[in-house]
Amino acid sequence: MLSDKTKAFYLDEKKAVLLLGHLFFIVLTWLSLEFFRERMTTSDAAYYNFLLIQDGKPVIVHNRWSSYFVQLLPLLAVKMSLSLAAVLKIYSASIILFQYFFFAIIVFILKDYKAGFALLLSLCLTFRGVFYFPITELFMGFGAAILCWAVIKRMIAEDRVFVKNTLVVVILFLFVFLTLFHPAFIVVIVFLVLFELSKGNLKNVHLWALLILGLAWNIARTKMFPLSEYEADKMPSIADIIKYLPELEGFKSTNYFMHFLPNFWTSGIVAALTIYLLIRAKRILPLIVMLLTVFGWLALILVIDRNGNSPNMTEYYYTLFGIFIALPFTDIFFEKIKPTVYLPLMAVLLAFNLVGIYNSGYIYRERVQYFDRLINNVHQSEYSKGFLAMTNFQWGIGWGTWAFPYETLLNSALASPDSAITIYITNDMARLDSINNDPELFLGPDWCLLCSRTNTLNPNYFKIKPGAYFKINTNQGIIGKLPDKFPGIELKPVQEKVYSATDTFIITRIELINNTGQVFPSMKNDTINIGLDYHIYDKEGDMIVFQGYFTPLETDLVNGTTIQGMTVLLPEENGEYIVEVDLCNAGRKWFEINLRFRLVVE
């Protein structure tokens, strides 16, 4: 009886993958719900969700039709008139559930536990901040890609001709499905087939047929669904690739990748272990396929964004490295490593990567707090729409301005439809005075500035009262001659001790107290640019930074207390520091309205 019990509790490959897999998806789902605002109300996601709620139909861009399936649950929530928070949470979680759907097919129907773990690892190995940018069709196809690999392996092992041919049809269907998520999946398709060919299957006619048909479909797809202008701009020609490859070292995209590389330290460990195991097993061809794919894909990314115009977008393409590394690793890992070793190693790998995803959400969490501060400012004005000056925009946590009307709309409407407001960012408020008298005005992105009206918004979710836009920032020129002091203005830290984040800077919050009886303006002019700056001292009191990073005032300072974020660049060495904050005229004049807080760099 003792031996039977021992056997019952023995964690083999199946039990290990099922246990860790379900724990993994529980954690991912929790993250998707806990940080639904960070995932669903920022950047492109805000615009997509606005369109989905406003039009009540799927949002399909660049002919990426497969993303329709991820939108079914949030669309149903809109049809049922569930709350905005419920719609966004359901959408955020549905992206994770979509991956679990493929995981379930792989482990419960195909019973391919190697492929099941490969999916888990690929969904976290090269995901960090991009977890908080889920509305990118590239990620949505990961589950289908690993399922495709599992079916290819089943097809190779199958002896019955009819079943083998049926599986080929299924694989071709998955090829089509994948490339209708994102054109880049043709690279994954080629990798999957070449990897299986390299494992002693070079004479497998079905694999060669799949490779040829997969490439043929990609050509046909480009004829049926031509690349959009956006996609075409990102596709370098063969001549461009040949021309720029020797210059990779000097590209801005290469510098950004090297800066970002430490975040992928677990990927390096997995890749190194895979190389070691493949060499030890004398599987040189699979190793060559893996290395050529990894370095080829990296070179393509670096060439596409060689001028560094969209480094954040480049990160989204890094995620494919997760498939290129996780798949060969898993394939050799279960074969060469004993169960007593691979269970804790699997658990540690997944845990470290999940913690990395959580920590990488810092900047997104700061971003939604920035929305809240600006939304509160507009609410206090009793307006429903606001103009924010471009010079006062917090670029360190903002990144882009085009989606801001929708980001602020979604975040403000979470409390109720009546609390909805929208903020438009402009570098020329005077230019908009001529149209600001339109009470139903709703300004969108530059390519569709006047596409929406406040009176046509979905009233179940957004109710913006008619009226003009409120100017959040007024010109500091009204101060006149710059005084030596600003009596009546005080600064206080929200936190007395601040701990470093996982980035090269932190955002700390400062209380600005205005007891002057007048509104203190925030927008710079040619000679006056008053904002926040700081000195840094070490724990012995010696100054190590005289002038830090200048942060403009986010809003005008009304009477009373205004809380705003301030960027502090972290010292290179770990330790405890004293940060002294002051009002400053853009590095030229300090006003000695000092506050201090302790900064711990870890």
**Low-pLDDT sequence parts:** 1-9
The average pLDDT score comes to: 92
**What is the CA-based Rg, rounded?**
27 Å
The major sheet is characterized as: 6 strands, mixed
Describe, in plain words, how this protein is organized in 3D.
- By secondary structure, this protein is an alpha+beta fold.
- It folds into three domains: 10-360, no CATH class; 367-471, no CATH class; 480-601, Immunoglobulins (Immunoglobulin-like).
- It is 50% helix and 13% strand.
- The protein has helices at 2-8, 13-34, 36-40, 43-55, 72-79, 84-109, 113-122, 137-140, 142-157, 161-179, 185-197, 205-224, 229-233, 238-244, 252-260, 265-280, 284-304, 311-318, 320-336, 339-359, 362-381, 395-398, 404-413, and strands spanning 385-389, 422-426, 441-442, 452-453, 470-471, 489-493, 497-499, 505-514, 530-538, 543-545, 551-552, 560-569, 575-585, 595-601.
- Strand 9 (530-538) and strand 10 (543-545) form a beta hairpin.
- Helix 2 (13-34) runs parallel beside helix 20 (339-359).
- The model is unreliable at 1-9 (pLDDT under 50).
What is the gist of this entry?
This protein has 602 residues and is α+β, with helices and mostly antiparallel strands. It contains 23 helices and 14 strands.
Which short descriptors sum up this protein?
602 residues, 3 domains, three-stranded parallel beta sheet, six-stranded mixed beta sheet, 14 strands, Immunoglobulin-like
